[in-house]
Amino acid sequence: MEIKTASDTLTQLTKMGDVTLFEPAGDRPDKETSRRYQSYSIEDCITNLSTPKGPKPVLKSMMTTACERNCNYCPFRAGHSKTKRVTFTPDNMATAFDTLQAKGKVDGLFLSSGIIKGSVTTQDKIIDTADIIRNKQSYKGYIHLKIMPGIEYDQLHRAMQLADRISVNLEGPTTERLSKLAPKKVFVDELVTMLKWAHQIRTDNPHEKLASSVTQFVVGAVGDTDLELMSMSDSLYHQASLSRVYYSAFGPVRGTPFENLPATEQIRQNRLYQSSFLLRDYGWDLEELPFQQSGNLRTDVDPKQAWADIHLKHAPIDLMTAEREQLLRVPGIGTKGVDTIIRARRSGTLSDLSHLKQIGIRNTTKLADYVLLGGKRPLRQLALF
Ligand code: SF4
C-alpha cells in the first residue's frame, strides 16, 4: 500500500504547477498571466482572487492532469505527450489543502480535474475531496468545484451542498462550435443540462445553502461570434440563474491541434465582459447590444458607447430630468454615478461639466456628447496644449 505524507503530496502539487491557468476561479476574471500551464513551485498553484474584501489566495488544482477526452485547445487532452500527468486521491488532495491552509498560504480551493474512468467516477473524487475538507477538516471558507460533463443529478446536488460555487464550462456557445472545440463533449445533454439542473436544485431546495453557478467560453478559436456568445449568456442568466459568465480569449498551446491558430485579441474578451455586464446588471436586452453585420461587437469602443453613438448623439439625455434607466445608458456613468447624479440634482442644478466633476463623475469627456445639462449641450473645456 502506498502511503503519502503531506510533504509528498505538496511535492506532487508543485509538479502540477499552474495547471488551471485557463480556468477562472472567482468573482472576477483572474489576472492575466503568461500562458504557461505546468511549472514547479507551490506558488504557481495559488491564485489571488479579487474579492470585495481584498485579494484571497486560493489553491487551484486538479485531481488529475490525465484525461480521456480530446478537447482541441487543451494541454491535458488524451495523447498530449508534453504534459506531465499527476494524480491525487481525495485524501491526499484534502491533506495538501489542509497543510497549506494551516500555514496561512491559502484560504479557498478551486478544484477541477481531467476525466478518467468517466465523468461520474471523476466527479465522485472531487466530491469526496470537498467532503473531507468540509466535514473532517471543518473548513468553512470558499470552495469552487468544477462539474464534469454529464454527471448524475444527485452528484450535482451534493457538489452544490459542499461548494460555494460550481462551474460547468460550456466552452462553445452552440452545439456546432463545441463540436469543433471539444469533439467528445455533448453540448445540451452533458453541459447545458447541468446548468439547468443546478437552477432546478436551487428552486426545489430554497432552504438549503447551495452553490451558485458559472460557466466559461473559449473565445475566438472556431469562428464563434459575439452574437452567439451573448445569446447563450443571456439565456443562461435568465433561464439558469447563472451568476457569472467568463470569456477566455483563446491562446494556442503547443502540441495541441490548435497550436497554429492565432490567439484571440484581449480587447475582444474585454468587450464581451462589458456586454455581459450590460445584460446582467444594467437591464439591457440582447437586441439592444450594438452588433455589427458580422455578428461581432466593435472593439474600438465599449458597447455602451457604440450604442450611444447610434442612439444618443442626436437625441441626448437630459441629466436633470432623465429616469434612472435612461441615465444608465450614458457612456461614462456607472450605477454609482447614476445614484450620485440623482442625489445631487435633488438639491441643485447640474448645468456644467465642472458640476459633474465636483460630485465625483470623472469621465466627463466621454459623456459630453450624449447629454444635456440644464437643457443645453455642455460646453467642453478646450485643451490648452
Ligand atoms: S475534458 Fe477536455 S478540457 Fe477538460 S481536461 Fe479533458 S481534454 Fe482538457
Please write the CATH class name of the largest domain. Answer: Alpha Beta
Rg over CA atoms: 24 Å
CATH topology of the largest domain: TIM Barrel
Overall 3D form: globular
**Known CATH architecture of the largest domain:** Alpha-Beta Barrel
Find the structural class using helix and strand composition.
alpha/beta
Helix content: 25-40%
Number of strands: 9
User: What would the average pLDDT be, to the nearest integer?
Assistant: 89
Low-confidence stretches: 29-35
The CA-CA distance between the termini, in Å, is 76 Å
| Number of discrete domains | 2
How are the SSEs placed, and which strands pair?
Blueprint: H1 6-16, E1 46-51, E2 54-62, H2 90-102, E3 109-112, H3 118-136, E4 143-146, H4 153-162, E5 165-167, H5 175-181, H6 187-204, E6 212-219, H7 226-239, E7 244-249, H8 266-281, H9 303-311, E8 317-318, H10 324-327, H11 335-347, H12 353-358, H13 364-367, E9 371-372
Parallel strand pairs: 2-3, 3-4, 4-5, 5-6, 6-7, 8-9
Antiparallel strand pairs: 1-2
Helix pairs in contact: 1-2, 2-3, 3-4, 4-6, 7-8
The chain binds iron/sulfur cluster.
